[in-house]
Amino acid sequence: MKNFLNIIVLKVKKLSFGSIRTKMVLFFLMVALIPLGLFGYLSYEKSSEIVNKQYNEYEKFSVSQLDKQIENTFEQMYVISKDINHYLSDPTLVILKEEIPRTYAGFIENKNFERYLEAHKTFNTKGIYLITNTGYYYGNDRVDIHKLVQKPFWKEANRLKEGDMWIGFYNSDHYYTGRKDEKIMGLVFPIESQFGVLKGSKLLVETNAEELFSYINFLENKLHASITLKNGKHQVVYQTKNAPKKLKSDIVWNNHFEAYGWDIVVRIPQKYYYQSSNVIYQYTLLAILFSILLVCILAVFLSVPLSKRIKRLKFSMERVSKGDLNTQIAVTSKDELGVLAQSFNDMVNQIKGLIEQMSETERLKRHAELRAFHYQINPHLLFNTLNSIQWKARLSGTKEVQEMIYHLTEVLHENLNFSDELIPLKKELETIKHYLKVQEVRYGPTFEYIEKIDSECLDDLIPRMTLQPLFENIFFHAFEDGQGRIELMVSEKPDHLELTLTDNGKGMNEETATKLLAPAHPDDKGRGIGVYNVDQRVRLHFGSEYGLSIESVVGIKTIFRIKWPKRRQL
Fold first, then answer.
1. Are 449 and 440 contacting, i.e. CB atoms less than 8 angstroms apart?
2. CA R_g for the chain
3. Taking the CA of residue 53 as centre, how many other CA atoms within 13 Å lie in the half-sphere pointing to its CB?
4. Helix, strand, or coil here: 170?
5. Secondary structure class of 111 (helix, strand, coil)
6. Among candidates 213, 218, 157, 209, which has minimal Cα distance to 185?
7. Residues 373-430 pLDDT 10s
8. Per-residue pLDDT averaged across 13-31, rounded?
9. First to last CA, the chain
10. What's the pLDDT band for 369 if we cut at 50, 70, 90?
């Protein structure tokens, strides 16, 4: 009998330390059963008390967060409206002289005012608009103003007196883009100014209310709360649908916003507010019993196939380590081991692919070196040929041809120079002067070119071939027979440089300007990619916050504006 017991002990020790399956079974039992049983038995009384207390505090915190969210949203909109109203009501300022600008100065005034409105936006501001009595509005162009003024709340807004305001909710179906059912909180504030187009106008501040309603939905769905919002006229603005019947035992929170006249009422049934200790006890007991049963089943039925799959994975890794790259593991599941097996297969395939790719890369490298040598020879052939033509033109007395070839050679010399991607601004300007000389020989003195450059900017670096594509766009698309006026300005800002290239040519519509800054598609025949390349190269060198922008008015002018950081050669 003693020998029999010794044999059993030895087998148990062997299984415990030699088999991963046995280790997993013991691990599951110890980790899951012992802590869970002890914790469930010893902490029942204390846990029920703590859970009830924490649940009550959690509800109070959630309600207080909703109050703060509503109050912060009100305050934010109110501050924006008061600041803009104070600015517009200043009798010493004439902000807007006419609704629709008819002069360039009026256009600039309108743009500056719209930028002023945009500057007041915060992260959740949907839009800020100044709407006149005639229905004309200032702000972004995403709003269907006719649909907006047909909304029921606008009729109330038209009855507002000076000093009053309207706050409420509505959907975003008056926007051309975006979701039509997006919740918006709007504030309408009559402008106190009695001058010009501002007389009788109203300021509309719209805030995205999705986050606010997420708080409301959280209270309704997670805490089973019923919420009622009333405005300053005691009208119900929002009320929970299918709310339970009101009982005296319900827990109720009331909050009145004195500055805006709104009231919020949150009501939670008592049965949800106070959780029963018996429920905690029952669920704890059931969880312990279920965990015991589940751990036993999982330990027996999952450990065997799991250990086999781990051993199969280990064996496959050993084969790959010995150089057998044709090894693959059959993926039979989508769990962690299945993902690991798939990753192993992918790794082996990638290693094979990398080996093949390295061979191909070496072949392409040798081919590229030969082509690079060939491309080094071609520019010399081009320059030698142009120099010969220039010499012939000089001997023949054709001065204009000689001059044109000289300037063309200087332009091509810079275009075909790939040694430096970034060059000083003054060098780029010298290339442009040669380019303009070519155009002057081509068209004659039909265009006017004005340069206003801060001397401090001349040594700052700019990507090579930045200006020539823009000038080419002017001569090929904006001017007719080279006739027009071009003005180039470069100024130094506190933290960046700004280049403005203006022409008084044909101009372009917004769609064309957008296409110039978009990648070219195969169907876009006849459209150059030079302007797009300029924008992309500035962004690639300096970051996405820099680049090229286009402003244009059809038949009047086009403005190319480039923003890039200050940088000089070391």
1. no
2. 38
3. 6
4. strand
5. helix
6. 209
7. 344 434 544 544 555 555 555 556 556 665 666 666 666 655 655 566 788 999 989 8
8. 62
9. 90
10. very low
Sole residue written with tokens 């002289």: 97
Helix ranges (DSSP H) in 89-124: 104-119
DSSP per-residue codes, 434-473: HHHHHHHHHH-S-EEEEEEE-GGGTTSEEETTSSHHHHHH
Structure tokens at 427: 């060098």
Contact between residue 200 and residue 133 where contact means Cβ atoms under 8 Å apart? yes
**Is there a contact between 489 and 425 (Cβ–Cβ < 8 Å)?**
no
Angle between helices 399-415 and 336-396 (to 10 degrees): 160
Among 157-161, 315-319, 388-392, 411-415, where is mean pLDDT lowest? Answer: 388-392
Winning range, highest mean pLDDT, from 42-46, 368-372, 414-418, 507-511 = 507-511
What CA–CA distance (Å, rounded) separates 23 from 33? 15
CA 212, 216, 219 angle in degrees (round to 5)? 140
In single-letter form, the type of residue at position 238 comes to Y
d(CA 507, CA 505): 6
Which of 166, 75, 78, 80 has the alpha carbon at shortest distance from 118? Answer: 80
CA–centroid distance for 484 within its chain: 40
User: Which amino acid, one-letter code, is at 219?
Assistant: L
- State the Cα–Cα distance between residues 382 and 380, nearest whole angstrom: 5
How large is the average pLDDT for residues 21-48? 68
CA angle 215, 216, 217 (to 5 degrees): 95
Task: Give me the amino acid identity at 196.
Answer: G
Question: Which residues 6+ apart lie within 8 Å of 158 measured at CB?
Answer: none
Task: Name the DSSP letter for residue 197.
Answer: G
Query: Hey, what amino acid is at 390?
Result: Q
DSSP 332-349: --SSHHHHHHHHHHHHHH
- Burial of 570 per CB tally in 10 Å (0-12, 13-18, 19+): exposed
Q: Are β-strands 461-463 and 497-503 bridged in parallel, bridged antiparallel, or unpaired?
A: unpaired
If one compares 460 and 95, the residue with the highest pLDDT of the two is 460
Region 66-91: mean pLDDT is: 82
Cα-flanking dihedrals φ and ψ of residue 108, to 5°? -65, -40
C-alpha distances out from residue 372 to 368, 542, 555, 565, Å: 6, 28, 46, 32
257 phi, psi to nearest 5 deg? -90, 105
